[in-house]
Automatic annotation (TrEMBL):
Protein name: threonine ammonia-lyase
Taxonomic lineage of the native organism: Bacteria, Bacillati, Bacillota, Clostridia, Eubacteriales
NCBIfam families reported for this sequence: ilvA_1Cterm (TIGR01127)
One annotated GO biological process: L-threonine catabolic process
Domain ACT: 326-402
Keyword Cell membrane belongs to the record: no
Length: 402
């Protein structure tokens, strides 16, 4: 059974490979009297907390097991942890990854010394293939979350948090299969049972949230989220049992909320987080948890976001936070109209960045047109102010921001 002794032992062994990541306060993200702190596992070796559990598990293998090699399945972060740990110990490693995994994670895994097997489908499909290969080859399977020693490795984060912020009130943890929150929750509750432990999943992949609330271990038919690190259909059986025992509450956040949290971390803290790493911050920013007036730690679990989707995530985050908006206005087609509209936007503090004129709509009078504006704005309140002032001036905003 998992014990504090194992977690302390893992912490001792991990000194040679894993960073003791910084815990930093984030005053610009702290709302409603909450003092928010960030446990920056996105700055960990390999860019994710996963190296902790992978290294500790592999370090405990027998000489015979090491000789046979190790095999794993991963959406990317566990893959890199297994590859680094195995290579450091001179052990052969094979990792099955879904073919939709970010290219950066695939290439980094190869660079760290693992053989990568891309599997069509989701993480769960990669898991099934890894199990097949393990049976064929006799290699040792390194589970990404449902393993006592892997959980012990992740639990070392809990030790660090308690040491870095002894008077904390709550810890907010991202959840996929549950290994990270199981380790942190066990550690925190064993040493400080008064501290709240909250889990957060993407709304499109709520396997552990449903299991937790229904008090019944469940598998989802399908999952969909750009937070690939927590895109899991089936949570761990052991991790589910530990969450049921040690976790206080679990919630979900939307794709837009995750995108807004990634943007907020970049702008305000100069930190790059992947989707999975940003979900605790999203839960805090959008009031999903009872942390008002408390000291709360968000575990930013990883920073390995695919640069190919980062621009889209930033755009979505700008829209979600009211920083970017589109507005369509129906007006009479005559000289000076654009000048008047632009002046109203400027007087409200907004900035027009694009203009599109459309006089072809058959439902509009021949003497009228649609004016489509792209704007940079401060927040949703400013967008509404612009709409109100345009209406007062006789213009007709006809579409909500998109």
């Amino acid at each position: 059974m998992l014990s504090l002794d194992k977690i302390y032992h893992a912490a001792f062994l991990l000194k040679e490979i894993a960073r003791r990541t910084d815990l930093i306060e984030a005053p610009l993200l702290s709302l409603n009297g909450t003092r928010l702190f960030l446990k920056t596992e996105n700055l960990q070796v390999t860019g994710s907390f996963k190296v902790r559990g992978a290294y500790y598990k592999i370090s405990q293998l027998s000489a015979e097991e090491r000789a046979r090699g190790v095999i794993a399945c991963s959406a990317g972060n566990h893959a890199q942890g297994v590859a680094l740990a195995a290579t450091r110990m001179g052990i052969r490693s094979v990792v099955c990854m879904p073919d939709g995994a970010p290219i950066m994670k695939v290439e980094n895994t190869k660079a760290l010394g693992a053989e990568v097997c891309l599997v069509p489908g989701t993480y769960d499909d990669a898991h099934d293939r890894a199990v097949e290969l393990q049976a064929e080859t006799g290699m040792t399977f390194i589970h990404p979350y449902d393993d006592e020693l892997v959980i012990a490795g992740q639990g070392t984060i809990g030790l660090e948090i308690l040491d870095q912020l002894p008077d904390l009130d709550a810890v907010i943890v991202p959840v996929g299969g549950g290994g990270l929150i199981a380790g942190i929750a066990f550690t925190i509750k064993s040493l400080r049972p008064d501290v709240k432990v909250y889990g957060v999943q993407a709304a499109g992949a709520p396997s552990m949230v449903r299991s937790f609330h229904d008090r019944c271990y469940e598998t989802l038919d399908a999952v969909s989220t750009f937070a690939d690190g927590i895109q899991v259909k089936t949570p761990g059986e052991l991790t589910y049992q530990m969450c049921e025992k040690y976790v206080d509450e679990m919630v979900t956040v939307s794709e837009d909320e995750i995108a807004a949290a990634i943007l907020a971390l970049m702008e305000n803290q100069k930190l790059v987080a992947e989707g999975a790493g940003a979900v605790p911050v999203a839960a805090a920013l959008f009031g999903k948890l009872p942390i008002q007036g408390k000291k709360a730690v968000c575990v930013v679990s990883g920073g390995n976001i695919d640069v190919n989707i980062l621009s889209r995530v930033i755009t979505r985050g700008l829209i979600m936070s009211g920083r970017k908006s589109n507005l369509t206005i129906a007006l009479e087609d005559k000289p000076g109209q654009l000048t008047r509209v632009s002046q109203i936007v400027a007087d409200c503090g907004g900035n027009v960045v694009s203009v599109q004129y459309d006089g072809s709509d058959p439902d509009m009078p021949i003497s009228s047109c649609f004016l489509k504006l792209g704007m940079e704005t401060r927040d949703a309140a400013q967008i509404e102010q612009i709409r109100t002032e345009l209406s007062k001036a006789g213009f007709q905003p006809v579409a909500e921001r998109t």
